[in-house]
Structure formats: structure tokens, C-alpha cells
Amino acid sequence: MSGGRPRTAIGTFGTIRIRSSRSHGYIATTRFRDLDGRLRLVTATARTGPAARAALKERMVRRPGYGSSGILSLTSSFADLAVLWLADLDAQDLVEGTKDNYREHLRLHVLPVFEHYTLGEITTGRVESFLKSEAQVSYSRAKHSRTQLNLLFGFALRHDAIPRNPVEGTSPLKRPKGAPQALTFEQIAAIRAAAASWRTGEHVKGPKPDGQVRDLVEVLLGTALRIGEALALRPCDVDDTGKTMIITVRGTVILKTGHGAFRQDHPKTEHSVRSIAVPAFAARVLRARTAGTDPERTIFANRKGGPLSPFNARRTFRDFLKLAGMEDSGITFRWFRRTGATVIARGAGTDAAAAYLGHGSTAITEGHYIEPVTTADLRSAGFLERTLNPESGDGALLTLPSGGHTDLEERLDEIDGEPDHDGEAELEAA
Hints:
Number of strands: 8
Mean pLDDT: 81
CATH class of the largest domain: Mainly Alpha
CATH superfamily of the largest domain: Intergrase catalytic core
CATH topology of the largest domain: hpI Integrase, Chain A
Radius of gyration: 31 Å
Shape: elongated
Strand order of the largest sheet: 1-2-3
Structural class: mainly alpha
């Protein structure tokens, strides 16, 4: 069928008509085609004709479905997308700290670059150029920017505002070479000495330190907790028999703009809810700090009884590092978590380390927390010698079905003179 007036597109409106009215001044009217495909009359009134027209347009902009086929279109500005995405973010089931990080990164790094572009003007090339400039600052910043743009353009894509996500064609970000690094025993000793002597001299003015951050260092070393998890511990989370101590991670302390530090009643992820055994040196610290205190109050607390702020704890820890002559070492609280992961992995395996740290995947533990082993396991050479020696090799391991088991390990333990009572390989120096 040809001819006739073209159909009004969904999310758009027809001709605006204005008429005067004795009781209302001026009335502006038009027909708007809603998301269900139906045309509906929309009106607005004002004292003058131009004011009525402006009021009608504002009403239609706020109408669900405005903008071609949804709330956004190719001609919408990136700033409009950001506003709508932030409103959607508020409704999502994410921890407040994560939302704050998204808001801050958008405000500081992403929005200033793209706010004056329309969605149709943001090409893959422009995104590529932006991400490369971010990568020159740091890999982490570029990664966060890429993630945020993916979320924003994914939102626009779901609302039919753009035909494709411009982030998809950009080059992969190259992670800088490096490996997780644990503290050395000498570094730990220096930090402990600095923590014990901080602000204890005769000429130190002001109140004496309460020892909270000093004790926090011992707890982090003995539990490999995240800083927020350690600060959220309460006496009711500690099961102490006198001989053994088990703590259960049930929350975390986070900083919220306008509210300061507060205890959140769940940790970072579902895998973070866990019970772990505490070594004796950390148990002594927790035992002393939980004696006679409110079971629901955090063990590490400020003067008002609220949780100790991670910001204040980090500031004091930087003083420890400066006192130890390690202010330029780059060491943070996270290094204690890496150190614990490395010790547990070398003693009990990666699976045990991942469970202790509350990771859902050993890949996270291996990639970000365990310092790579630089020593050689001599037993591997023993396996190869016993199996492949041209004169005495028995080929036993090559004949085993996948997942099979042999007593070869036990026999090699006897030959090496180092029985493995825990069923795990001992690491020896190369």
C-alpha cells in the first residue's frame, strides 16, 4: 500500500498545535506514539504559547519510550547515558563500595572525555584512543575504564540506542609483566619492630598509641584476611577453646561517602564467608583484644565504639613503613594477604590457599596472590629418572590410566629419606 501520511515512529510525536484558552492561557497538544504502538494525546498548559510548547516537549522527553525506540537514541548525549546508567546502578544488588568506585571512576576519568559526544559519535576509534591514553597512566586505570565503558554501552545497547558496542573492536589491554610478591621474613621483622616502637619515645607528644594497628598487623599476618574483613571481626565471630581458635568471616568494613567507615554484614563475595583456623601468635592478639568486650562490637574500634577506619589504619601503617626505612617499598596491607597465600600454597597447596583466602577460583589465588616458586622440587626429577632411565626405567607412570595411582611416590620418599607425612610435596632448594 502506498501514499498517505507516514506512520509516527515509536517514541516520537507529531505536529504540536497550540490554542488559547480562557481558563488555562494556552494549551499545547500533540500525539505521541508509545512503546505499545498506540498514539496518545499529550497536552501541556502555560500562560504563553511558547511556554506551553516548551512544557509539552519537556513532558514528552520524560515520557517512557522517548527517543526513537526507547529512552535513548543515537542523538542522545553520553552525559544522558551516564545519568540513566547511574540510576540503574543504584537499583542493582551490589555492595555500596563497588557502586562508589564506579561513580568516582566515571566522574573523574570517563565522563570528562565523552560527555560532549552523542552516542552516535562515539566510535571504536575514539574509544581505542582513550583506552591507550589511560594505559599510559596505568594498566589498572585502563582496565577499569574499559570495564565501565562496556557496562555503559551495554546499557545503551539493551535500550536500542546504538547498533553495536564500540568497545568490542578495541585492542586487548596488555597486562604489564610482573608477579605477586610476598614479604620476606626480614621485611616482616622490620615492620614488627617499627610497629612496636612507633610513638613510644620519651619526647613523643600527644596520646600514646593504643596498639590497634600494631595488633592488626599480627592478625593480617596470621589470617591473610582482607583489611576490611579484619576490621569487621567481632568477639562473636571468634570461637576460642584456649587451644585452638577459629574465626568466621561474616562482614567487612567499608568507607561510604558522607557516612565514614561502617560494618557491612556480608563480605565481598559469597565465597568470602568462611571459617579459618588462626595460628597461635595471632590468636594471642585476638584473645587479648576480645576479653571482656561487647561481643557485637568490632574488635578494632575507634574512640566512639564504631569500626576502625581502613583509611586511618593505612595512614598509621605508612608511618610504620617510614620508621622501618621502607616508605618507598610499595608495601601495603595487601602484601600480608599475598604472604599468607604464598606460605599456605607452598605448605598445603593452591586449593588450600584459595579456600583460606575465600576465593572461588584458584586462578585468582595463583595469578594475584601466590609468589611464584623459584626453587626446584627434586622429586620431579626422581619421577623422570625412575620412569625414563634408559638402563633401569620401568615406564610405570606411562602405563597408568588417567587419574591412576601408584606407590611410586611413597617409594621415592623412602629413597630420598624425606617421608611426606602430610601427603604433599616438600619444596627443596635447587
